[in-house]
Amino acid sequence: MTLTRRLIILVASCIAFAILVVSLVFGMLGRNALIAQAEGQAQVVARIIAESARLSEVSLEEAQEVVTDVLTTLALTANHVEQVATPGVSDRFAEIVARGNLDSIWLIDSDLRILASSVGDYGSVINGQTLPETLSRDALRGLVSGRRYSVDFGPAVDGVRYVGVRAGPGRALIVGQSVRALDAVRAANSVPVLMEAMLNRNDIISIEVLDDQQKSLAQVGAEKTPKDLVGLPTETISTGEATSEIRERHLWVSAPIRDQAGIVIGAVMIQMSNQQLNQLLSNLLVYGVGSAALVFAAGATIASVSARRIARPVLAMTTAAREIEGRSFHPESLDPLTGRRDEIGTLARVFQDMAVKVQRREEDLEAEVRARTLELEQKNALLEESARRVEAELQAAKSLQAAMLPESLPVNPAYAGKASMVPAREMGGDFYDFFPLDERRLGLVIADVSGKGVPAAFFMAISRTVLQASALDGGTPGDCLVRANEVLCARNPMEMFVTAFYAILDIETGELAYANGGHNPPLIIRRGDGSVAELPGTGGMALGVMPAMPYGDKIAHLAVGDTLFLYTDGISEAMDGAGREFGEARIEATLRDSAVRPVDAVLSAVTGAVAAFVAGAPQSDDITCLVVRYLGPPGDAIVS
Questions:
Q1: Alpha carbon distance, N-terminus to C-terminus of the chain
Q2: What is the Rg, in whole angstroms, of the alpha carbon atoms belonging to the chain?
Q3: Which GO terms describe its cellular component (predicted)?
Q4: CB-based contact 199:205 (threshold 8 Å)
């Protein structure tokens, strides 16, 4: 993607993203404002309900007081009627009840007997037993005795409120009026009516009033508070704060109801439609997306024009860079840019100077490369010639080294043997040797020089010559190693050393005298049971390390048919691709079935097992081994 397109997309995207973020922020603020407004409305409703309930009680009390005053006035009026015309007073009472809204009128004497009534002439009724039992007898006696002028008998009984007045000496007038007319007033001013009036206003769907124990006192609307929302009024009652929760398509708001002292005495749960809230968010989203699209288009256009103006000099320098790569650059092509006084002009001038210097350096470098290439070709030719000479000399040295080592033992009916040495490099540091010391003794040597390559091969030749010369001087194997060690320590400028095993086999008796100078202990394969065992060590150190070192001797006996296997650590330490060593245990396992094999087969079995184990892994050391089988005295020798 080009720089121009990236600038266009970056600028337009940043503007559009900013608009979307602002729209979302305003949407969230609007949502929170609507929720806060709903909570405020719920608190207003709660205050209205609380105040309405209080005013309803006050209004009823005042209405009852008015009723009491009216009853008292009517009782006095009826008393005047009774004073005007005593005969037929019951008929007058009945007329008053019929014309007004009184329920009953009674005239009683000092014995609480009914003298006249709006419901007929009772005559003399003893102890006023027809009067309601709820009328206080003490209050009635206070009226007829003259101690009290009027008495309000308190709350209504069976829907009738009674008031009494004194009606002359020894008499009292009782007036009763039904208060059921106040039920309409109570109903008209009740909280449910007020709640019904609030429904469907400001998206209110249902209202429920709860006391401080969350018991429902009044509820209007289609739904009661769901059980899973009982935590809202609980929190409101405990904290005194309005709470809200959005559930599906509705907004539930809980607000506290307080008494005149400000104490929370309940809560009101209001269910409101969140259609207005959703509509606000939808409008903000539409406006935000639309504005973002318009601004994105405008920003893309502006960014496109600006980006082209900005990118044009960059494209010119890009073209110049390609021309430099193709060696067709002309410095004057950047002159229109170098005349500018802004950052682009500075960059163009630096680029032009750099391009000129690069061109000159390339020309100088090409000339230098041509000269160095010619010189290198000449030196390579000399090196190749030298390498060919060295290779030829190494091959010749390898052939000479191989020729130095005997491949098989001298022909003798008392023994048979086979040897092999495979160097890790062109030339090896291992060697073996066998030579007759006299008619009945055979000298056997196997050794491993430290290091590899040409130095090891030279030290190997020296060590072989020294060991053979020392052996021919006579003495025990230990004496031979002592003399050889002194010579090698005296002529060892590179401080190399060699591990060596030297043995003398008596072909008449099978006695094997040997000394070990730090070498791997050879193995004896017994013909009788096919067992494999190491020769005990003699405790000697490698040759060439330190002069005046002692080397001890030991003697082993070979039975007829026993086989002696000598080897270097190139066999036991041969490694596969995973870095695991072949080890002495595998050598012994390979030799257990070799007691009756020909010596050639024994040697091939070991080298073949090593090759199979390493499975093509690089050879890290020379692989050398020597197999000697004792066949018995020359006159009694067996066939190998």
A1: 85
A2: 65
A3: membrane
A4: yes
Per DSSP, 536 falls in state P
Q: What is the pTM of this model?
A: 0.45
Domain ranges of the chain: 1-189+274-323, 331-375, 405-630
Q: Which residue type, as a one-letter code, is found at position 65? A: E
The predicted model gives 178-197 an average pLDDT of: 64
Report pLDDT for 128: 41
Q: Decide if pLDDT at 491 tops 70.
A: yes
What token pair was written down for 339? Answer: 């005349």
- pLDDT for 530-542, tens place per residue? 999 999 999 899 9
Q: Could you please report the per-residue DSSP string of 393-429?
A: HHHHHHHHHHHHS-SBPPPBTTEEEEEEEE-SSSS-S
The second-level CATH assignment, the architecture, of 1-189+274-323 is 2-Layer Sandwich (3.30)
Nearest to 419 by CA among 629, 624, 601: 624
Dihedrals φ, ψ of 296, to 5°?
-60, -45
The pLDDT assigned to 92 comes to 77
The most distant pair of C-alpha atoms in the chain lies apart, rounded to whole Å, by: 188
Q: What's the rounded Cα separation, in Å, for the pair 598 and 605?
A: 11
Nearest-5° angle of CA 276, CA 281, CA 282?
Answer: 95
**pLDDT exceeds 70 at position 52:** no
Instruction: Name the most confidently modeled range: 62-76, 222-236, 275-289.
Output: 222-236
b/e code 222-246 from CB counts within 10 Å (16+ = b): eeebeeebeebbeebbeeeebbbee
Q: Which amino acid is at 98?
A: A
H or E segment and range at residue 417? strand 415-422
Q: What is the mean pLDDT of the chain?
A: 80
In this structure, which amino acid lies at residue 622? Answer: D
Torsion over CA: 459, 460, 465, 466 (sign): positive
pLDDT at 208: 82
> Considering the domain 405-630 in this protein, what is its CATH number?
3.60.40.10
Is pLDDT at 602 greater than 90 in this prediction? yes
Cβ neighbours of residue 601 closer than 8 Å, sequence gap 6 or more: 594
Question: Of 294, 244, 245, 273, nearest to 23 (Cα)?
Answer: 294
Closest to 353 (Cα-Cα) out of 326, 335, 376, 380? 335
The two tokens of residue 321 are 């860079």
